[in-house]
Design brief:
- Helices cover 37% and strands 27% of the residues.
- By secondary structure, it is of the alpha+beta class.
- It folds into 2 domains: 138 residues, Roll (Nuclear Transport Factor 2, Chain: A), CATH 3.10.450.50; 241 residues, Beta-lactamase (3-Layer(aba) Sandwich), CATH 3.40.710.10.
- A 6-stranded mixed sheet has the order 2-1-6-5-4-3.
- Strand 5 and strand 6 form a beta hairpin.
Length: 406
């Protein structure tokens, strides 16, 4: 029950209903009458600030579900949430408008729904009581705001951003991640996604830098699409790097030694010049870090900057040869289905002992294109294997939720 008030004054007037007497069937049914009494006293204890009796009316394993989608409390948690309100004498006064009660045949379970006059307007309460040691206790209570059908579209529009954020958080939570995701729709010039407050925070680009890196290599003639990175016979961190690799394969398996070799060939001055020319910002390039600057140190790029660069690449609007940009776009193709083509690059970096990872790219579907920058961090820094797979997985699940793909 977050302290928010629906400002639909006309709605409140139209919905106000005078309290009704207890129906005759309740008067004739002792169990229903008892349940009715428990609920009436429960609401009264809230209004009068009697926390011990209010919480004591619930089972120890009970659940209270509030009007906000994030509000689901076990009894102990609900008690802790209530405590400051009761201490400040800032509680709630729910007045019964009407109530329906059902009793199970064994006489040990009851269910109910009720309309309440509250400071949030007319709300609906519903739930379950169980009879234990001869006493009825509330095992579940659900408080819901009522919304007339004729204004449902307006209310839905008002809360759509909040609803989307909640669902996206659930997707990130499902994979044990925190982070952010920016999806840009160039057709509407609008950005969508998760935790927009982080879209302008800078992070090491890690292996997502292989996109501009490859472009510079091809533009300078250091490599081309048939270039072969020769293995020097030394065992490397990942076995898939221990062989000769084409540019396409080196990009796909994210071969760090291959791109370190390329960076040294390009050199710091030429690297800085082309990064400036392409408006790829935030890289701290020096002679002493030429083969590491995208993996560690002070280089930073934001999700918004990633998307802006990707958009210029896709539209072939970089000051590079068109053949180079077209070759890069072909190398970046990650997945092709009858419904969509996904292009992009993952990245993985460690900063201050914390792992974080990228998936950046674009998806073409139904004649449209969307640009993507996802940055994720594992909540449990000990479980980085799952996190590595989840970088792309969470991206695809969010796009399915948003209806971009099925």
């Amino acid at each position: 029950m977050k302290n928010f008030i629906f400002s639909f004054q006309a709605l409140l007037i139209s919905l106000f209903v005078s309290a009704q007497p207890i129906p005759e069937k309740l008067k004739e049914d002792p169990a229903s009458r008892q349940v009715n009494g428990v609920l009436e006293k429960w609401h009264r204890d809230a209004a009068e600030g009697n926390q011990a009796e209010y919480i004591g009316a619930m089972t120890s394993d009970g659940v209270f579900i509030g009007t906000d989608a994030t509000e689901r409390w076990a009894t102990a948690d609900f008690s802790a949430w209530c405590k400051p309100h009761f201490e400040r004498k800032k509680t709630w006064n729910f007045k019964t408008v009407s109530r329906n009660i059902g009793i199970a045949e064994n006489g040990l379970t009851a269910w109910f729904d009720e309309l309440l006059d509250t400071k949030m307007g007319v709300c609906r309460g519903s739930g379950v009581l169980v009879k234990t040691n001869g006493k009825w206790k509330i095992a579940q209570y659900i408080l819901s705001a009522t919304i007339p059908n004729d204004i449902m579209k307006k209310v839905t529009a008002l809360k759509s951003e909040t609803d989307s954020a909640l669902i996206l958080k659930r997707i990130f939570d499902k994979y044990g991640l925190t982070g952010t995701m920016l999806i840009h729709d160039p057709e509407t010039n609008k950005n969508h996604g998760y935790t927009p407050a982080r879209w302008d925070s800078g992070y090491l680009p890690a292996s997502t830098f292989k996109i501009p890196h490859s472009l510079i290599g091809m533009e300078t003639g250091m490599i081309d699409t048939i270039y072969l990175f020769k293995w020097d016979g030394k065992k490397r961190r990942l076995p898939q790097w221990d062989k000769d690799l084409t540019l396409r394969d080196a990009f796909r398996v994210s071969c760090v030694p291959c791109y370190q070799e390329l960076a040294r060939k390009i050199g710091p001055e030429r690297m800085k010049s082309f990064l400036t020319k392409m408006s790829y910002p935030g890289m701290d390039v020096r002679a002493e870090n030429i083969d590491l600057f995208w993996l560690e140190g002070n280089s930073r790029i934001t999700p918004r900057q990633q998307v802006e660069f990707l958009k210029r690449l896709f539209e072939e609007d970089l000051p590079l040869k068109k053949s180079v940009m077209q070759a890069m776009k072909e190398i970046m193709v990650n997945e092709t289905t009858p419904e969509y083509t996904l292009s992009g690059k993952t990245g993985w970096a460690v900063r201050n002992g914390n792992n974080y990872g990228w998936f950046v790219g674009w998806i073409e579907t139904k004649g449209k294109v969307y640009f993507i920058a996802t940055l994720v961090e594992p909540k449990n820094q000990e479980m980085v294997d799952d996190f590595a797979m989840a970088r792309k997985t969470v991206t695809m699940e969010v796009m399915r939720f948003m209806g971009i793909i099925k």
